[in-house]
Amino acid sequence: MIGLKYGWAMSQRTAKYLAVYLVLAVASFIAGLQHFVLTLPQAPQGKLQFTDGIVVVTGGQQRLDDGLRLLTAQNGGKMLISGVGEGVNRAVLVQELDLDDRKAELLFCCVELDFEAGNTRGNAKVTRVWALGHDMRSLRLVTASYHMPRALLVFAREMPEFDLYQWPVVPADLNLSGWWWDRAMMRLLTREYAKYLAETIRI
Asked: Tens of pLDDT along 21-32?
């Protein structure tokens, strides 16, 4: 009888400890998520300088637009669009992006398309091979602002010898004010934060 009471007391104590740990873990995750959202890059930092290459991680027209504008502005270098979908080619991009003659010329002469990468890690691996093949030492990474922290982490791991510069693109539909009331936005940011945490642990 005494043994049963002791066992029951231990079970209750263990359950309480687990409940406390769970509450602390959830609170820590929420606090980290809030900090992650508040510190997302909203604009490029510092003076824009020439880089040997520009890599655009696909996922939106705005990223491609910015990549081509950067390539035009620096008047030199090469660009890689990584993670291009099947059926997409330069002619399709010219039409979809409604490019002027100058940007269309750049697209055909100085931009390469990568169809292999299916995730951020794949983007980084393909980019490394591409950059080394062109004797590059500096790259500007163009991707969505919410994706930039994880992308920089992955690219820095895969390409430690390269100087990496970020160019965060803020999607037009990215609402960071009151994001917790927007179910789709909360889902997007929570998923991205979880992936970011997974990458930090992987290091």
From this structure: 777 877 888 888
Task: Give the angle subtended at the CA of 94 by the CAs of 79 and 71, to the nearest 5°.
Answer: 25
Q: How many residues does the chain have?
A: 203
Q: pLDDT digits over 113-136, tens only?
A: 999 999 999 999 999 999 999 999
Instruction: Tell me, yes or no, whether 31 lies in a domain.
Output: no
The residue among 89, 46, 62 whose CA lies nearest residue 144 is: 62
Domain membership of residue 175 (yes or no) is: no
Q: What is the CATH number of the domain that holds 92?
A: 3.40.50.620
Is there a domain that residue 11 lies in?
A: no
What is the model's pTM? Answer: 0.85
* φ, ψ (nearest 5 deg) of residue 8: -65, -40
Q: ∠ CA(54), CA(58), CA(61), 5° rounding?
A: 100
Find the domain containing 155 and state its range. Answer: 53-169
In a domain, 124, yes or no: yes
Contacts 24+ apart (CB under 8 A), 130-134: 130/53, 130/55, 130/80, 131/52, 131/53, 131/55, 131/80, 131/159, 131/162, 134/52, 134/53, 134/78
